[in-house]
Every structure is written in C-alpha cells, then in structure tokens.
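Hi C.,

You asked whether I'd gotten around to modeling the 289-residue construct. I have! Everything is below, sequence then structure, no commentary in between.
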Amino acid sequence: MNNNQFYEKYYLSSDGLKLYYRFYPSQAHKHTKRPVILCLSGLTRNSLDFHDFAVQYQHDFDLICPDYRGRGLSQYDSNWTNYRAEKYAQDILTLLESYSNRDIVIVGTSMGGLLAIGLHQFLEQKLLGAVLNDIGPAVNSNGFARIIQYIQTDKPQKTIEDCLEWLRQLYPLLKNRPLQQQLQFTHATYRIAKDNLFHYNWDTNIAQALRQASPLPTDLWQRFKSFDPKPVLGLRGALSDVLSADTFQQMAQSLPSFTGVTIPGVGHTPSLNEPESLRALHHFIGQFR
C-alpha cells in the first residue's frame, strides 16, 4: 500500500488497454457492507484530484479512483476515436466487475458527473446516489469551447513553478485557492517525460475526439430524472461557465431528490475542499454510513 493510504492497481479494458486506478480501503471496516464510493474525474483529470477527498472518507468507506484511458497512469489509446463516453462507461463497468457484490455511490466531477448519469441505467439496482460536481444534463457551449481550446495543444514547461504559472493564466481563479491546493492541482495536471520537461498528463488527441463527438444525448434530462427517489447532490461553482444557474435551477425543479449547493467565488469546477463543499458532502455521504 502506498503511504498506508491507497493501493495502486491495474486492470485490462475489454479491448486490452492497461488501465490504472487507486483503491483506498476503509480503515475501520475491513469487511464493510457499506457502499463503495466511485470517484470519477473531469475530462482530462485523473485520480490525483480525489486524494484529499478519499483520505477524508476512507475511515468509513472503500473508495475507487480510476484514471480514464489516455489520462494519468492509464495507457493511451492508439485509436483516438475511442476517447468517447461509451468507452469510458464500458471501462468503468469492467472495473466494477471486481466489486460486483457491493453497492455504489458515485462522486463525479464535470465529465465524471455525466458518466454517473449515463451509468445509472446499468447500475440501477446498485447505485444508491450520486454527487454531480459542476455538471448537469445541459452544458454551456462557451465553456465547452474553452475546454477544447486549452486541452488540444501540449504546453511543455521546464519547472513545476512554470507549470503553476501557466495554470494560473488558464484558470485565474486558481490563485484564490490555498497554495498547497494549487500545487496539488498542478502535479495532477503535469507529468515529467523522457525529455525532462513537464507535459500535460493526458493524451491531447482527446480534443480531436471531442470536436467530432455527438452532442449530449437528447434523453439526458430523462436519465437524470430517473434517479428519483435516490439522492443526488449537485455542486455548482457560482462563476461556472459550464453549468449555468438556469440549468442548476431546472435540475432542482425536475428531480425531487436533488439538493443543489452553489459554491461562491468558484468557477468550473469546485475542488471539493471549499467550506461549502465540505459541509454539503459531509451531510450527503453521511446518509450512507
């Protein structure tokens, strides 16, 4: 176990890719019947984003934090057309086969939240609830375009300090976070390559696939509503350009079991470390103890 906190594990996708995930075992309940918390990151993000969250909750829960294909320590796909939601969902379902006797709670950030909505139909009997972090059944097109713009071209940097400075330019609100959180975000965003430079920790071909991706499923609202009566917590950054206030309000109106919390002074996405996020998550996760 790494640092007495998590195991580093790999599994094979249905098409033979070696995929990575972190497993944070419950420290208090080795044979717990409590649900596994599945942490699904954003479009180009990886398991490192959930480290603080996982450590906070692993006293009572087992947690699984995967790297999607083409991200983090998972193998890159030589066929960039496989960078699509259907493949990610299939990979996750393959991973969950090892935990087939356990119920699931999903915490999904951005694209991870969209996957949570899509996975519900396959895990209907096992999925007890979900956290949707700054995402919903409708996505603001301006935010979508911004994301494609910055992920499509690698920006190698010489030092971690250079990486942080570049990210502060990309995300002006990043500097409002504590320095430790800024550095954690930076280390999750970059990796050192053979040229001794820091490169984005994802396959930039993801952008090519994203540009040719189909629009969101037309039935995504219906899939979202199908969670009822299971509890869903929605977090929205007050300054988000991906999840609009109108969509967030509509989510609350269309799903009786939905609780929405807006995080002030934050864009896309909340880090889950803000005081408002911590309180909301503590209350939400607590019901599954």
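If it helps when you're writing up: The chain has two domains: 7-150+217-286, 154-203.

Thanks,
B.
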